[in-house]
Amino acid sequence: MTGAPAAQAAALRAAAFLEQAALPGTTGLSVTAEDDGQLVIGVELHAGPPAARAAAVAGLAAAIGAPGLARGQYGPLSWVTAAGAIAGHRTRVTTTIHHDGQHDDPREGEH
Fold this sequence. Notes:
Elements: H1 3-21, E1 29-33, E2 39-43, H2 50-63, E3 70-74, E4 77-86, E5 89-98
Parallel strand pairs: 2-5
Antiparallel strand pairs: 1-2, 3-4, 4-5
């Protein structure tokens, strides 16, 4: 299986892995498969404050066998990411943190 069907199957396996792992603090995730087959698990902004999202990335990193976390920053935006594998598929877990505070309130947009 190649192309889009393979990517979809890999994303479904990743979703099943996450459901079975039942890690605390891992609500608000997105799972996608890139064209090259790499899985990307995003800990989304609505998953909680920055510290909770970074902790979720750390927990998921351990679950996928990542050797550690990587952090980067560009202007007011930083990210926490880790790379490992799920069922033989390269997997990246990531979250972003906006240091200007404009995008880190999970209630943003509610009225």
